[in-house]
Design goal:
By secondary structure, the protein is α/β, with parallel strands linked by helices. The chain contains 24 helices and 30 strands. Helix 8 packs parallel to helix 14. It is globular, with a radius of gyration of 25 Å.
């Protein structure tokens, strides 16, 4: 018997609404839900393969315990939890709570109950050592917002824009970075049909760049140079929003001085683009009158990611691209409480970095982006008081995602205790003491709340509409499986350790376990729309309220958006005074031939999906090293060759693929692939890890600890062993 169920996909962060066909208790088919008012029936290949993910032969259906000889044996999940709890208690008793750290990866975004209980558990044991991807891929967003200030009423909606500038982002593939990730192709198509001026800055001619009115294809890492040049053109030609600047902005004089040297000629000579095209891009954006600049992962992972994001905010601000008094709020919450949205700047934090938990390495501490994940490996490796001895990993794969893979590898092997929640034996799982087998998305309920919260992250509005959806349980786990939801793991640990957990101000009953829906009720306490009401709309629903508009600025309100941050402008002056080179290195670097940039691949999500034949057909599930044809000809390389890519830190093997869309002098590879060093010769099957090329002790952002993870100077040569 066949039945159809409505839910949403949680393979990536887009949360596409889907229809699931179930036969004999198994999901057999996934399609987009055409009756959904936000996604319009859209689904991607990643979501449509969910049955393969759920029933993959390598999926863990029992938790695993590492034996003395390094092998793994199945164990009951309750036994594993009890043993982990006992070991954690001993570690805390002997070394204090700081000896226990946690990493919540990008996949944890999809399971808000798990993230909430993970944070509650760390709070209960008294450890602040909680790391996340926020300081790996885009720490510049919260850091820049802290320096510049946040506009309380939010940014202009993409659907309402006349002009939009994308910097180093390809939302048609990544489902992130400017165009709402909720059917981005349709939203872009409709916008272009309505006359949108699309502008793109990217070293690759990406899917979205092909549709742009102007595409600037610069040398990687020069985004601050280009943005400063655009700001200069707009200021010099008085194209900015004078009224908004006068009423809501401070620091314009300092900004004007700081960009004075960024002439079109200077930008052209340094960034390798047409100075006149840059100036035309600036004029087109300023003409708007509505629309934003948004920035992607690549520029954030490159040197000076915080400065790049700050200049993005500055460009938006001087052009007055924020929601004004009386205008509709772009993302009036559904699951989150609705506050008063006012047409004013919020008060900036007193501390932006260097506060909270102090790291024992490189003078790092907590920042607006969180704890510096680049310091996590060193906190494990550095002996002495405060050393991290136990690591809990949920929704992530540090061996693939963390910078400086060699240091990460050493750290993982030194831990006294490590527990990873994962559906398969990932590179991290294979180094863990315990691997806890979790339920998958169709086996657990959830809500679309995490995407609402994106409104607090950079200039993304999250959902452009007041949209909400509840996803029920669709299928049970396979017969004989011993799997749990992620939140249940932390609840079990807390029970065995005698801890009280608190979720959203509510004390969790530690004697009688709540249901997953009980937990969702806790998370949505005080929401604008009750969870019970959202459940009445299985297709998802837009809970419109025309009365939610930007209210007037408070009388006597003093905070302003700061476009003249002394610290940021000092860094911009550093950029302008440093030498720049024609080759792939930076000033003072040894001679490098290329710069390696990060990218997204359409059919995988970071380190997830590489083992799924419907996503990566054939036997070669590697991440190619995309290179310009002219570079290949000059180096006598062709598609399929094995090359050595060497930074100042390490060398990796990679497989060449010709790519005319990539600028000459650039290598484009995906992040979060590969495995431990002993598996390097399997590069044709598992790919290679670009994080190994980064150096946690090298050039870092001193505020958030971010090392250079894109626009990495590298040398390239054909490998002696082609590994046929």
């Amino acid at each position: 018997m066949s039945t159809e169920h409505l839910t949403f996909c949680r393979f990536c962060h887009a949360f596409c609404a889907i229809r699931v066909t179930v036969e004999d208790g198994k999901a057999v088919k996934i399609i987009g839900d055409k009756e959904n008012p936000t996604y319009y029936g859209y689904s991607c290949k990643k979501g449509r393969q969910l049955p393969e993910q759920h029933y993959h032969p390598d999926r863990l259906l029992q938790s695993q315990k590492r034996q003395k000889d390094g092998s793994y044996q199945p164990c009951k999940v309750e036994d594993a939890i009890e043993e982990i709890a006992a070991q954690l208690s001993l570690i805390i008793e002997e070394h204090g709570p700081r000896a226990v750290a946690m990493y919540t990866g990008t996949f944890s975004h999809h399971y808000p109950t798990g993230t909430a209980f993970a944070m509650a558990f760390m709070g209960a044991i008294g450890s602040a050592m909680m790391f996340s991807p926020s300081t790996i891929d885009q720490p510049g967003k919260p850091m820049a917002t802290a320096f510049h200030g946040r506009w309380n009423a939010g940014p202009t909606r993409f659907d309402d824009a006349d002009t939009w500038l994308l910097v180093g982002t390809n939302p048609l593939v990544s489902m992130w970075g400017g165009i709402p990730q909720f059917n981005p192709a349709k939203r872009l198509h409709d916008a272009l049909k309505n006359g949108l001026n699309l502008l793109v800055i990217d070293p690759r001619k990406t899917d979205v760049a092909e549709k742009a009115k102007i595409h600037l294809q610069p040398k990687p890492g020069e985004d601050p140079t280009i943005l400063a040049g655009m700001i200069k053109v707009i200021l010099d030609e008085e194209l900015f929003d004078q009224d908004f600047v006068d009423e809501q902005v401070e620091g314009i004089e300092g900004l004007t001085q700081a960009v004075s040297e960024y002439t079109p000629e200077y930008v052209e000579s340094r960034a390798g683009i047409s100075g006149s095209a840059m100036a035309e891009t600036a004029r087109t954006f300023a003409a708007g009158p509505r629309g934003m600049v948004t920035c992607g992962t690549g520029p954030n992972m490159a040197p000076r990611g915080t400065l790049t994001e700050y200049l993005v905010l500055v460009l938006n601000t001087i052009c007055g691209r924020w929601v004004k008094e009386g205008e509709e709020i772009p993302n009036p919450f559904v699951f989150l409480p609705q506050g008063e949205n006012k047409a004013q700047a919020e008060k900036r934090p007193d501390e932006i970095y260097g506060f909270g938990e102090k790291m024992r390495v490189r003078d790092l501490a907590t920042s607006a982006a969180g704890l510096p994940t680049s310091a996590a490996a060193d906190e494990i490796l550095l002996d002495g008081e405060g050393q991290v001895r136990a690591l809990l990993v949920v929704g992530g794969n540090p061996m693939a995602a963390w910078p400086d893979q060699l240091r990460t590898y050493d750290a993982m092997r030194k831990l006294e205790l490590s527990a990873t929640l994962d559906i398969k034996m990932s590179a991290t799982a294979k180094l863990s003491s315990y691997v806890i087998a979790p339920k998958l998305s169709l086996e657990s309920p959830s809500i679309s709340m995490p995407n609402e919260a994106l409104t607090f992250y950079g200039v993304s509005p999250g959902y452009p509409e007041p949209y909400g959806q509840y996803g029920p349980v669709v299928v049970d786990p396979p017969k004989g499986a011993d799997v749990i939801e992620e939140w249940q793991f932390f609840y079990g640990l807390a029970q065995h350790m005698g801890l009280q957990l608190n979720i959203s101000g509510t004390k969790v009953d530690m004697a009688n376990a709540p249901t997953s829906d009980d937990v969702l009720e806790m998370l949505t306490k005080g929401s604008r729309v009750p969870l019970s009401e959202v459940k009445k709309h299985p297709h998802g629903h837009i809970f419109s309220d025309p009365s939610i508009v930007a209210k007037p600025m408070d009388e006597g309100w003093e905070p302003r958006l700061d476009v003249g941050s002394a610290e940021m402008l000092a860094e911009l002056n550093e950029v302008g005074s440093e030498e720049f080179t024609e080759h792939g290195g930076y000033a003072g670097d040894p001679e490098f031939s290329h710069r390696l940039i990060s990218r997204r691949l359409k059919n995988v999500y970071n380190s997830s999906g590489r083992d799924l034949k419907k996503l990566v057909p054939g036997n070669f599930s590697y991440n190619p090293a995309f290179m310009n044809p002219d570079d290949l000809k000059e180096m006598d390389l062709e598609t399929g060759d094995v090359i050595e890519v060497s930074s100042g830190r390490a060398t990796i093997l990679a497989i060449v693929e010709e790519a005319p869309d990539v600028r000459a002098g650039v290598i484009s590879m995906a992040h979060a692939w590969g495995d431990a060093p002993e598996h390097d010769n399997s590069v044709r099957f598992i790919g290679s890890n670009t994080g190994r090329l980064t150096d946690n002790a090298g050039r870092i952002d001193p505020r958030c600890g971010m090392p250079v993870m894109s626009a990495i100077p590298v040398n390239v040569r054909k490998a002696a062993n082609q590994l046929e």
